[in-house]
Design brief:
heterodimer, A: mainly beta, 6-stranded mixed β-sheet, 1 helix, about 50% strand, B: mainly alpha
């Protein structure tokens, strides 16, 4: 083959490949317009005032297509499927308690995206912000509003970038002091100090005493429920196979996702409730795999997200293993019940 | 979009020029062989393609698919073993019959290219893991034949530089890939499908450049060596003293080479690199690698490959030492990354150049595969051992042990240096 014909082949192939590549990018960027159109039959969203001290309200990230997609919206807790009031504040993950909110959001830089955590006051005004070292995953605020915690996924090394680690941080919202990683805490596993390079934490949930919290510790392929102490900076393992714990309002039970043997690797979790006094596990009535940190609507009901047509939908199920799961709202994620 | 296109077309032009360049009286002189430039271009383009995917994969899994990949190593230890076998098989297949290198390498590139569109239809972890495994299989298959082609198309005196040029182009692709991916994500909404499609197009371009511009037919300087490319002959290479020594050294030094992710983790823990810079640390290593690959390759040609190879481990030793010091200057992270990149620039291509000197042409691909596999296996063993040592004794002690081990291995390697006659 002459050089000329090889060049011709290369150039024509290049033209075809460039056309395919360009078409795919144009198709993906046209998605922006489609998503800015209000989805037919979707929830009604109107801009308004959102405060984190409105009792009897539910706040979440609105995922319905339209101009207010990804904004924090609020609905009355009694009518979660009803019309939404949007705030103009966009978050990937969100939580709020006692008039304090934590909002994990993306910052679009020139060559890559970075992430940050905003501490918001009751009127969604920014009080502080922190860098988040990876893709936001979980967010929580203590019942007192004095502490906020978040977890991010951090990608592994560059070429074989297929292993992930998590980084979990806790901020004191009064002083601004930050614990950038729970890895700085001492770990006590089965009564003995424990150290490993592969320790990961995620899914913090706070007790109301401004001292105790719970989280998931993962090491050597196993997960544990740990109880953390902010004063002594220690973490003590309590129970195996607990991920994304969520403490009940009365502080006696933990709702969590448990990796149940025999389920497919892609959908391995079921919702359980652990009684902290007896350490007894109760499976909840939800039969699908739940990958979320549940929230307690009241002391008898937990609420969680499952994948839906527009990202995610919210469901609720009784916390005692009875009843059936019920969808309470579509196109919503990261719920928080106010006051 | 246009950025990716313009990027893709630049290397293509470069390769065309490279191929078109008339073979001057001595291509033994100071020019880089067109084949090396063509292969460099193929690697550059392919790395743009694969690093585009690697860069967005975590985001895609977590934000795009809503999966929690934690605790699910997509490619585990078992796969590492499999990949070593694939590499040896690739090396061996390429040696059977004249001019197969190109087609075995091409099959590897094509396999990886075909994996990209599959990512568009896989929506859960297991199939994605399988696709990534297939992608890495393609990489394993092509590495040894490609390096054999580089060594066969350059003269022994310029081999270090030829590998340097290739590695520099390869690393440039690895740096450009993530950039291209983020530009696409920026121009789109959830444009992971666009990233995978563009990555596929770029990968196809790489295969095409290989097919069109890398000569494949029977080698003119064809194998007259006594060694026949049977499997037994390939294994028999180990009875060849120089190659055995090189393999043993690569293995020993590999056993004390802490994996990149640990280096970055140590850098962050010991030197307090802020979280937001963490993702940029590999770029520092890559930049130093890119800048130094050619100069150190040339140095290897003049001063001796073995010396440069060992000096590279000296740079790594220095990097470990810096990580162990209690001095915490603000320049320290830069120094560690520069030394880490220097280590790669002085060892990665240089080892292949050194090994090429000791392997007969007919078995070049198998021989290089043997050395690479030994090194990869040793590094994998090291990361397991280092992880265990970290758990038992903490990061500082683990690193001190590795530092001592590396120093001992380096001194031992000094005594084992192969005879210089082969390297001219």
């Amino acid at each position: 083959m002459t050089l000329r014909s090889r060049l011709l082949i290369l150039l024509s192939a290049l033209a075809v490949l460039a056309a395919v590549a360009l078409a795919s990018v144009l198709h993906a960027s046209a998605r922006a317009e489609r998503r800015d159109h209000t989805q037919a039959g979707g929830p009604k969203v109107t801009p308004g005032t959102v405060t984190l001290t409105a009792p009897g309200h539910l706040v979440f990230r609105n995922m319905a297509w339209g101009p207010h997609r990804d904004e924090l919206t609020t609905v009355p807790a009694g009518a979660p499927a009803g019309p939404r009031t949007s705030s103009g504040v966009k978050c990937l993950r969100f939580y709020a308690a006692a008039g304090t909110g934590v909002c994990l959001q993306a910052v679009h830089g020139p060559v890559s995206d970075t992430y940050r955590a905003l501490i918001l006051d009751a009127h969604l005004k920014k009080r502080a912000h922190y860098d988040v070292p990876g893709i936001p995953s979980r967010a929580r605020v203590s019942p007192t509003g004095h502490y906020a915690a978040w977890t991010a996924f951090v990608g592994g090394d560059s070429y074989a970038g297929t292993n992930f680690s998590t980084r979990t941080a806790i901020a004191d919202t009064r002083t601004g002091a930050l614990i950038p990683s729970l890895e700085a805490f001492r770990i006590v596993r089965d009564g003995r100090p424990y150290q490993s390079s592969d320790v990961n934490f995620w899914g913090v949930t706070f007790a109301p005493d401004d001292r105790t919290f719970y989280a998931t510790l993962a090491t050597k392929g196993s997960t544990y429920l740990v109880r953390g102490d902010l004063r002594t900076r220690t973490l003590t393992t309590l129970h195996p196979n607990v991920e994304c714990p969520s403490l009940s309002p009365d502080g006696t039970r933990i709702a969590y996702k448990k990796r149940v043997p025999g389920l497919p690797k892609d959908a391995p979790w079921r919702l359980y409730v652990l009684d902290l006094r007896t350490m007894r596990e109760t499976p909840l009535a939800e039969t699908r795999s739940v990958d979320d940190q549940a929230v307690w609507k009241d002391s008898h009901t937990v609420v969680y997200a499952l994948p839906g047509d527009y990202g995610a939908d919210l469901y609720q199920v009784p916390a005692d293993g009875t009843g059936t799961p019920r969808r309470i709202s579509v196109s919503a994620v990261s719920p928080a019940y106010l006051g | 979009m246009y950025v990716a296109d313009s990027r893709a077309s630049t290397p293509a032009t470069a390769s065309v020029e490279g191929t078109a360049r008339p073979p001057r009286a001595g291509r033994y002189r100071s020019t880089i062989a067109p084949t090396v430039l063509a292969l460099g271009t193929v690697s550059l383009v392919t790395d743009v393609s694969s690093e585009m995917v690697t860069a967005v994969l975590p985001l895609y899994l977590v934000a795009g698919l809503g999966l929690s990949p934690l605790g699910f190593g997509l490619l585990d230890g078992v796969y590492n073993g499999f990949s070593a076998v694939v590499r040896l098989v690739g090396g061996h297949l390429a040696d059977r019959g004249g001019g197969r290198h190109k087609w075995v390498a091409g099959a590897g590139y094509a396999l990886s290219a075909l994996c990209k569109p599959l990512l568009l239809i896989a929506h859960s972890l297991t199939p994605i893991g399988l696709i990534l495994a297939a992608d890495r299989t393609g990489k394993g298959l092509r590495t040894a034949p490609r390096d054999a082609l580089i060594s066969l198309s350059s003269t022994p005196e310029t081999r270090g530089r030829a590998f340097g040029v290739h590695r520099a182009m390869d690393t440039a692709g690895a740096l450009l890939g993530p950039l291209a991916a983020f530009l696409i994500l920026r121009a789109t909404v959830d444009g992971y499908d666009a990233v995978f499609t563009v990555s596929f197009c770029v990968a196809v371009l790489g295969v095409l450049i290989l097919v069109l511009f890398v000569p494949g037919g029977g080698r003119t300087e064809a194998a007259t060596s006594a060694a026949r490319p049977t499997l037994r002959a390939a294994l028999g290479l180990l009875s060849h003293r120089d190659l055995r020594r090189i393999t043993v050294c690569a293995l020993l030094l590999g056993l004390a080479t802490v994996s990149d992710s640990f280096v970055y983790l140590l850098l962050q823990r010991r030197l307090g690199v802020p979280d937001r810079w963490f993702a940029l640390l590999p770029l520092g290593t890559a930049a130093a690698f890119l800048l130094l690959a050619v100069p150190l390759g040339r140095l290897a040609d003049r001063w001796g490959r073995w010396r440069v190879f060992l000096a590279g481990h000296g740079a790594l030793l220095l990097a470990y030492a810096l990580l162990l010091t209690s001095w915490h200057g603000s320049a320290l992270p830069y120094a560690v990354l520069a030394l880490h990149g220097t280590f790669y620039a002085a060892t990665d291509g240089v080892l292949m150049a050194a090994a090429s000197d000791s392997v007969p042409e007919a078995l070049r691909s198998s021989g290089l595969a043997l050395v690479q596999t030994g090194q990869a296996a040793a590094r994998f063993a090291c990361s397991l051992g280092f992880g265990a040592a970290w758990t038992l004794w903490g990061d500082r002690t683990a690193l001190s042990v590795s530092t001592v081990a590396l120093a001992v291995c380096a001194v031992y390697a000094l005594t084992l240096r192969p005879s210089r006659k082969a390297a001219a």
